[in-house]
């Protein structure tokens, strides 16, 4: 039985009670419009923790003025049903007023992690993510929190947030769930028409071309990135945002592919901005865990 909770005080009290009874808390933050990628996180949490909490909140702070905040899909009823199916205990779905009762005076900065890669195109996005996740962690308290590696930069920011602010949270990265043609599952795939959906597989193909370049012995991150950029540019329906080959741990530039790297791409297909990434060994093998 899944309980739907809308208020911070209520979720905090419920989880304090669970911890007092010796139970561990697993937390999966989401923006809803749940798909199999989200469900894989929830299923892993179910397997590893006593109490499973899923938050559903479309956070206005992480959307830029020209982004899709107002049209982002909101499907709480279906989301709650799916959570019930995968045996989540609590769906925490606060309103914007509950999370931000007043214009926030104090917010967090993701620092230099917030200005590179996706942060370059989405200024303020990772500051908004850090702020909302800190608020959510304040509501849940001590827990294990599960995030997808599909949003690799977000995962690096959240790990830094927890480390730098000393939060009682263990952050766990989970593998990307893909469609049969390699497209990473995303709530934003709903924006794509049939042709665009077919074109979207170019991101995954680009990542594989990056892996192939490394496998073929190319250790120059600029050339690896430009191989990926070339693949994306060859798709008429795609508009490249960036293609990058960076240090997998801190996302900084590398001068050579000689340790684990993150290959990351972002592109607009129609009105949707899609991202994808893969972690690679210096030999060009894709690896799941860093
Ligand atoms: P979102 O609702 O897009 O904010 O995503 C909520 C969580 O689900 C984040 O930790 C995402 O990284 C994760 N997630 C989204 N898509 C996928 C996917 N295809 N595979 C695995 N995790 C995902």
Helix content: 25-40%
Please outline the major beta sheet.
6 strands, parallel
The quaternary state of the protein chains shown equals: single chain
CATH superfamily (homologous) name of the largest domain: HUPs
- Rg value: 19 Å
- The string of secondary-structure elements, in order, is EHEHEHEHHHEHEHHHEEEE
CATH C-level category of the largest domain? Alpha Beta
Number of strands: 10
Mean pLDDT: 97
- Tally of discrete structural domains: 2
Number of helices: 10
Give the structural class. Answer: alpha/beta
CATH topology tier name of the largest domain: Rossmann fold
Per DSSP, what share of the residues sits in E-state strands of 2 or more residues? 15-25%
Outline the low-pLDDT stretches. Answer: none
* Largest sheet: spatial strand order: 1-4-3-2-5-6
**For the terminal residues, how far apart are their CA atoms?**
35 Å
Ligands (ions, cofactors included): adenosine monophosphate
Account of the 3D structure:
- The chain has 290 residues and is of the alpha/beta class.
- It has two domains: 3-174, 3-Layer(aba) Sandwich (Rossmann fold); 187-282, Pantoate--beta-alanine Ligase, Chain: A,domain 2 (2-Layer Sandwich).
- It is 37% helix and 21% strand.
- It contains ten helices and ten strands.
- It has helices spanning 8-20, 36-48, 76-85, 96-99, 118-121, 125-140, 152-165, 194-199, 202-215, 221-233, and strands spanning 3-5, 25-30, 51-56, 90-92, 143-148, 169-174, 238-247, 261-269, 272-280, 286-287.
- The strands form two sheets. Strands 1-4-3-2-5-6 form a six-stranded parallel β-sheet, sandwiched between helices. A four-stranded antiparallel β-sheet has the order 7-8-9-10.
- Helix 3 links the parallel strand 3 and strand 4 (90-92).
- Helix 6 packs across helix 7 and helix 9 (202-215) packs antiparallel against helix 10.
- Adenosine monophosphate binds at residues 30-31, 37-38, 40-41, 147-148, 150-151, 174, 176-177, 184-187.
- Residues 30-31, 37-38, 40-41, 147-148, 150-151, 174, 176-177, 184-187 line the site of adenosine monophosphate.
